[in-house]
């Protein structure tokens, strides 16, 4: 067997140890499942889609795995052993009953909303990495709404979203059950689009163009019951967005945030921020938030590998946990002020790449305004 060439897999040196760990986790997963596919591995192990794709190809070249059609198996398996495949948890849940672990299904109301959202997203603005946009799948947006419903965080609530390239606000609005839904986003294209769809569908959704890192309008401070945000997965961005959300909530409220991304090593820093802000984590749902497949992030050689490994299943880039926490009178709501150094480190890796080379940005390529 040849050794894995991690220089082919990773995109910067900080990822090396993480993808060495991912290599071992894939081997462990295949021991339990006997056979799998590329998209099942991305969905159930860890790592970003294109890096996992390169890693799997390295494992194939090293003779560690076999690829027959689209089925991936460990080369060390005994073909005579019975297949004891471990089934992944079901996706979605029935909101008529309280979720129990990961065994749930979306009810008919939410299946209908998925169909409506599929039509809506066809005309949404092309995502841009200049604002570090990385939309989740349609199913994830609707699952978020259904989860709020199951936890009593939807009916009659005032809900605010800090950034919404996912269009979760529209999925919330389609239920017709929230009292008010407000979106703050820096992207004028998204603000206009959300307001247009809201007007057409007569939804209780209103989007505003604000850079909340600089200013929170006084009329919105302390107004909401629930906030949702999905910040860039670094400590600075996470704390800033959490502090803004806390400031927008009334004396008691609930926050939702996705973190512990599977495409980079876990950090206790995120938990410490929530603890220091004196909020109580009530739920952390693994593998909940699935980020949509973005073909524009693939190199030419990656696309060739995708043709080799693609099983035709539902695509995704990576996943995160979904976390719910409760906020009370003693929670710390002061807005985090960024130093000049922190502002330089605030943006994500994808944003830094397109600032250096705008042609890597999906919206730039489509000549989006």
- The 3D shape can be described as globular
Structural class: alpha/beta
Number of strands: 10
Largest sheet: 7 strands, mixed
The CATH architecture of the largest domain can be named as 3-Layer(aba) Sandwich
Q: Could you report the average pLDDT, rounded to the nearest whole number? A: 88
Number of helices: 14
Protein architecture, described:
With 369 residues, the protein is of the alpha/beta class. The protein folds into two domains: 6-74, Orthogonal Bundle (Arc Repressor Mutant, subunit A), CATH 1.10.10; 111-298 and 315-365, 3-Layer(aba) Sandwich (Rossmann fold). The chain is 38% helix and 18% strand. The protein has helices spanning 6-9, 16-33, 38-44, 49-61, 108-120, 138-150, 168-174, 188-201, 235-248, 269-276, 300-309, 340-345, 349-356, 362-365; strands at 35-36, 65-68, 71-74, 158-162, 180-185, 205-209, 224-229, 249-259, 280-291, 318-327. A seven-stranded mixed sheet has the order 6-5-4-7-8-10-9, sandwiched between helices. It has a three-stranded antiparallel sheet with strand order 1-3-2. It is globular and about 65 Å long.
